[in-house]
């Protein structure tokens, strides 16, 4: 276990009057720059009278949350300098972008990253103009913002990101601003419980600051309206020691507010230092640390603090009316223009910037230097600190396959043995996240190497269940938390896997949208270094929900993902254990992707030896000659294609029926692992050239495609290659219940017998010639269903079927388990 | 406002010894039937020795949560009888299906709904055999289960559903069991705050019962491991008065447990009666009621209570090992079979059922009768109590359109005036739900009629913001809560609309999956009556995220929905205010659908008069002759198709450019409102016949289609109609940032100039003949972008454009606002 180095604990002192003045000056500067970004496109230092045409024609941005964010940033800076903290700043209300852009500009980071935006009047003008401007920068704390790992546009993930960032970062602290609007979302509401998982010895510190400015877009917030007593109980119930700060109301002197808040923050940081010191002592003594009641801050200040008190007679400061742009008419109305002028001048820019437009040194030096600047913390550019995983050789975990289908294995269980060794070799920068499904998805081999990290109460008998204070597996029954933690972990330069039931990964549809967008934008930013990919392992999939039925059946996450940019998304459907191993090795080496891997956990045939699997996965798809009945030099009459483990079993069963019953029919079997290969190479980097597509699927012959998910996706992917009607896709068409796997296939017309019927219907002349066989297939599926249920038969043995026709192994039966699989 | 009738408040008395015995007998019967369902397919009363072959070959189901559910059900029944309560039972851990099936069977409801499953030994045998059996019933509290409005397969929505069910049901109570696993999910974690919205005068009561059985699938739960003190603080922080019950541990005498729990439940119900009485008095006096600290119960009992203490030497009762099927080897192992036998006999079935296999009358009568049975409460079959809305004439809200495009309106703002009148005419069974976006989406006219319901603190100035103790608009910054509330409201027979930003509706992707599945299954159940449709109004859409940028741009919810069954899903993209009115009138009349309506909130042209709009919406798509340059009797040379308000503007702009620059080109303009019309009529009930498709889009001519969302969806929908490459779709291809609407279109090649370029590239011979025009278009878009930004021009005026070529109105310019629009 990593244990914390000495937590910086320089004795803090209350700020002197001069320090308060300079702190306040820095805050004024940050607010001035924020307002400037929202409104101005010229005259950035107001050295000339403010004119209408200096105001942007479209006023876009969010003022309301901004002054609170800059206030907290200024105070965090003071604490960093005094205590030497290694700190991140995570902005829940990410729409307060101008504030964070301003902060990074004042710290010099912005000009380092974007030299065109220099520390002078011209740079200031660029800073202002580019904001929310075509060709400029977004209005949020976006990937473009130095120091950000959290866009915040979709609210609710600040705490999950912060905890994810702090796992295995024992020397760091994340100042995490939680918006009170955001706090109403489900993901945020449960993420408070992250503190039951963080370990004070091995992980860093999250200091949540609930930014209680009272209003959302158009309404008050719940947490601002339940009274301090109830709020205090709630936060204690979340496991925190809340410290309350209320400031900025009733024309409070800002210096007084600064002084009072500095004391609150010092109190929180002193508590943290004490907890960390205790953890160090515990670690030194080989003791576990108890879960502490970590401090947190309730920061109640007016929305739009220091902005216009009223606009057009309506209360604005301290109201939802401050949410976006309070003076919407600044370009069109003299009154608004004058008010904007007064507002800007209220920050006294002439006292903040020198002749050239550079922040006065006396103010600038209140911020920390170099990598201690939150805007320049290397962890916030995760790729810059990313170390590649030391990956053990996955070939050593191969299932021995005497002939195709000649070994039975549970694919994810085999993968688990490799992941166990990945954990062994990477004890500090790799974690597995799952919603209570790691064992259900058959990855339990990892517990030979590690434990599930849990810092709520542990009972003695939990120890044998691999519950421990520290471990590489994070399990909480919230897909949102798993996703948020993993994102935070990846964004700060580490690696991980999210293992989930296939159907419920839709719960994070919207979160992964945002992560994919983050990756897309960072691909366009040279200074952002590539991150480890976000790897999904989706098991307990649609075809094998024997216990749970219809509610657990949805393979549509793939459809959701393929709407994101092609450069970001990869989808793999390995048909067996060996291909899963090869696929996952590839995923853990990759960067800047979202890898969606769907794999079964039930015993199933292993089709390919490891060498064959590697070749197959490298190609992404290929012809399985041994499964078909092609004749050299002649085009096949039909292609049976498949993608996904269960459809592959059915396809091979159909191929065997055809081989037996219509031996002269030239059948080709194609298996697809990398779904993106079906696209055209102009659409996706993994896409096939038209020539290669024809080489695999022929030019005009019918293709019967058994697909894991919703069938129409195959058409959408192969669209440019083939717009004829020759590809006939079977898959899940939203028919299901609690039933056997074979019945599931039958309900969706994807069973082996139906695939044979499809071939008969599609290959010219067969339907009439083999009318009897067609009827027989129809009967057979009903018999098979009943028989399979009664005898508890699983798919590889339905109707006495087994694949025993591997190369040179015609006489062998499907053996028991091969290789290291149990 | 509806105010509560007299809350039933018959004096409760502690149960007598005999009552406790009978209560216990009912519980034993429910548990016996639950175990029987999981294991047996014969010998249901154990009148013969238990044999292996009487055990099902596949043991599927969840035992762990079941005994707790049946215990609570039995006690709820006692309370209902004593107090005359009108109660629902909502089962968060819905996988405990056997328990609820057992309860409804014991109450007789099951046999009433499914006469084949009678109240005798044969019926019992059917009850057991059908469970989790092919052709039988699901393992969860599914739509098939009488009394259920909540499947619970995807965890997290029990409280939201319960509150939704209780809005406007002042005389009802929902006993709502919250699983402690479920409690870790985000949606559940925030749904505790629902009590800040419920009104004690007008709404019913939710009694949350936190089922703290300590374990999930393979792990302890967070709330079971934070200690009672922290848990108590948390629940008080949620605004509740928690009552703690711990029972069933250390071999507690079950009668003692019953006696103690009865007292706890009575305490909770006494508190509720008092709150309701106070609310009645307040209502009578015309006073508002304060938000009370509603009681709730913490129910800490062993997981798998009354099941095997150990299995194969492992602790089972009180452990996660009870989660599914504790004796997995009952068919294969003598030991497990004997243990199953002993387990079943521990409930002493011979004391519970008479000679025929019928529950003894003395036990049966402990349950309530007729509609007071929770399994037969009419509200749980919402369609049976559904009253159609009284819909005001939407035509009266029409925007007057002197000629196509001859009036400007904000579509959703106009809709708001009609919704205002819908609320006026339906004061008790219609609500609007939104995540703080009702005004942002421009529906504020509704506040002329109603308020936002809010039962947290109200400050005096909130009153002018339409915050009130009761109102028809529910706003909380959680899409999960909005969706859950609306679902609960619909499932109990009412109507509603969910208004949301388009991008963030993905947050409920997984929830709407479950609702669509519920609708699909209930379509197959004769006894379940049709519900009002779930209506989305998605605004602030992808093309108009001027303030927020990339994070707020995602039109993929449509793609997500079309994977659900065609009978369930409808998608509408009305191009203007009048078509939106007509569409929404249709949606509010419809049943059993999920209606997705995407509409803009920005000022835009109104193309059709109301009469034309009605015809157009009834057809779902059609040719806009006035926009094209067709020549009677000749086929057009190109079709410009469009779906969505912004693409419609661009398409008409492109049509105008073409008309001006290539007057001889025969252009047809087709607008699509009902997206499902693009499918084949064999795939979707709204689908077009092939003949009609050709009639609109021609046979072989190029089609340039400007679509609101991800372009490939159009191919997927029109796939069966047209597999050629002649349809060329433009749409959002995941390029965006904070920028102007025109720049957004440009980034995605969907702007008017690019559409013209597409026409030039697609219609034979034009590219060479009009090479100059092509280049000009390329230049024009860059010029237009800069000019539009600088002059704050919106789409209808880009590059000086306006649609002024309406029939007979060539000389008119686009006027100011028409009709009743402001």
UniProtKB/TrEMBL annotation, chains A, B:
Residue ranges occupied by any Xylulose 5-phosphate/Fructose 6-phosphate phosphoketolase N-terminal domain in the UniProt entry: 16-384
Top-tier EC class: lyase
UniProt feature coiled coil, ranges: 258-285
Keyword presence, DNA-binding: no
Pfam family, one: XFP
Residue ranges annotated for the Xylulose 5-phosphate/Fructose 6-phosphate phosphoketolase C-terminal domain, each copy included: 601-803
Keyword Cell membrane belongs to the record: no
EC number: 4.1.2.-
Cofactor(s) this protein cannot do without: thiamine diphosphate
GO molecular function annotation: fructose-6-phosphate phosphoketolase activity; phosphoketolase activity
Superkingdom of the source species: Bacteria
Keywords tagged on the record: Coiled coil, Lyase, Thiamine pyrophosphate
The family this protein is said to belong to: Belongs to the XFP family.
Entries under NCBIfam families matching the protein: PRK05261.1-2, PRK05261.1-4, PRK05261.1-6
PANTHER family: PHOSPHOKETOLASE-RELATED
Protein name per the record: Probable phosphoketolase
Annotated organism of origin: Brachybacterium fresconis
Organism lineage string: Bacteria, Bacillati, Actinomycetota, Actinomycetes, Micrococcales
């Amino acid at each position: 276990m990593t244990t914390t180095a000495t937590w910086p604990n320089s004795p803090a002192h209350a700020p002197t009057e001069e320090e308060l003045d300079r702190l306040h000056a820095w805050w004024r500067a940050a607010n001035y720059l924020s307002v400037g970004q929202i409104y101005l496109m010229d005259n950035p230092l107001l050295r000339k009278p403010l004119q209408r045409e200096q105001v942007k024609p479209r006023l876009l941005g969010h003022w309301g949350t901004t002054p609170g964010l800059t206030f907290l940033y200024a105070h965090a800076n003071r604490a960093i300098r005094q205590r030497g903290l290694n700190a991140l700043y995570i902005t829940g209300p990410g729409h307060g972008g101008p504030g964070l852009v301003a902060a990074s500009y004042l710290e010099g980071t912005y000009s380092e990253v974007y030299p065109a935006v220099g520390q002078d009047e011209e740079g200031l003008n660029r800073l202002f103009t580019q904001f929310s401007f075509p060709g400029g920068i977004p209005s949020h704390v976006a990937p473009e913002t130095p120091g950000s790992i959290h866009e915040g546009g979709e609210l609710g993930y600040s705490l999950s990101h912060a905890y994810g960032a702090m796992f295995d970062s024992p020397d760091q602290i994340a100042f995490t601003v939680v918006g009170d609007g955001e706090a109403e979302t489900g993901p945020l509401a449960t993420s408070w419980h992250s503190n039951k998982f963080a370990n004070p010895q091995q992980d860093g510190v999250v200091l949540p600051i609930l930014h209680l400015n009272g209003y959302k877009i158009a309404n008050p917030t719940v947490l601002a309206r339940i009274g301090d007593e109830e709020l205090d109980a709630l936060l204690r119930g979340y496991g925190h020691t809340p410290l309350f700060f209320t400031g900025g109301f009733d024309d409070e002197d800002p210096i007084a507010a600064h002084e009072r808040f500095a004391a609150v923050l010092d109190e929180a940081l002193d508590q943290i230092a004490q907890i960390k010191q205790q953890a160090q002592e515990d670690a030194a003594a080989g003791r576990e640390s108890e879960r502490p009641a970590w401090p947190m801050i309730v920061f109640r200040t007016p929305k739009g603090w220091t902005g216009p008190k009223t606009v057009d007679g309506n209360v604005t400061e301290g109201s939802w009316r401050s949410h976006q742009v309070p003076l919407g008419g600044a370009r069109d109305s003299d009154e608004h223009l004058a008010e904007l002028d007064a507002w800007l001048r209220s920050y006294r820019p002439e006292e903040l910037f020198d002749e050239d437009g550079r922040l006065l040194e006396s103010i600038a030096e209140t911020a920390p230097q170099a990598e201690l600047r939150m805007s320049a913390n290397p962890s916030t550019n995760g790729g810059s600190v990313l170390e590649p995983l030391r990956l053990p050789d996955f070939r050593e975990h191969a299932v021995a396959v005497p002939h195709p289908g000649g070994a039975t294995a549970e694919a994810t269980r085999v993968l688990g043995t490799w992941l166990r060794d990945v954990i062994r070799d990477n004890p500090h920068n790799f974690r597995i996240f799952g919603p209570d499904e790691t064992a259900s998805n058959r990855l339990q081999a990892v517990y030979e190497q590690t434990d599930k990290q849990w810092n709520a109460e542990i009972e003695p008998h939990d120890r044998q269940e691999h519950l421990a204070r520290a471990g590489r597996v994070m399990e909480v029954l919230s897909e949102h938390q798993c996703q948020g933690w993993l994102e935070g972990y990846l964004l700060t330069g580490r690696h991980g896997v999210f293992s989930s039931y296939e159907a419920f990964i839709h719960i994070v549809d919207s979160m992964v949208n945002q992560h994919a967008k983050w990756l897309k934008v960072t691909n366009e930013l040279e200074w952002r270094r590539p991150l480890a990919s976000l790897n999904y392992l989706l098991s307990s999939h649609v075809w094998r929900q024997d216990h749970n039925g219809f509610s657990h059946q949805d393979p549509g996450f793939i459809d959701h993902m393929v709407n994101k940019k092609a450069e970001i998304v990869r989808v793999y459907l390995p048909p067996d254990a060996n291909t899963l191993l090869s696929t996952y090795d590839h995923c853990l080496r990759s960067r800047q992707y979202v890898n969606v891997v769907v794999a079964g956990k039930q015993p199933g045939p292993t089709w390919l030896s490891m060498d064959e699997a590697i070749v197959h996965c490298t190609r992404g798809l290929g012809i399985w000659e041994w499964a078909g009945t092609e004749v050299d030099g002649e085009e096949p009459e039909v292609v049976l294609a498949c993608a996904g483990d269960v459809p592959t079993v059915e396809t091979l069963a159909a191929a065997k029926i055809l081989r037996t019953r219509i031996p002269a029919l030239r059948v080709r079997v194609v298996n697809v692992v990398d779904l993106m290969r079906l696209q055209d190479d102009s659409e996706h980097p993994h896409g096939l050239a038209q020539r290669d597509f024809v080489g695999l699927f022929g030019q005009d012959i019918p293709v019967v495609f058994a697909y894991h998910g919703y069938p129409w996706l195959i058409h959408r992917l192969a669209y440019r290659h083939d717009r004829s009607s020759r590809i006939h896709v079977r898959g899940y068409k939203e028919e299901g219940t609690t039933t056997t796997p074979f019945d599931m296939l039958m309900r969706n017309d994807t069973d082996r017998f139906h695939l044979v019927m499809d071939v008969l219907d599609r290959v010219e002349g067969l339907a009439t010639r083999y009318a009897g066989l067609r009827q027989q297939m129809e009967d057979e599926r009903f018999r098979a269903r009943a028989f399979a249920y009664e005898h508890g038969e699983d798919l590889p043995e339905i109707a006495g079927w087994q694949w025993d026709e591997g190369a040179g192994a015609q006489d062998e039966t499907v053996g028991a388990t091969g290789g290291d699989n149990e």
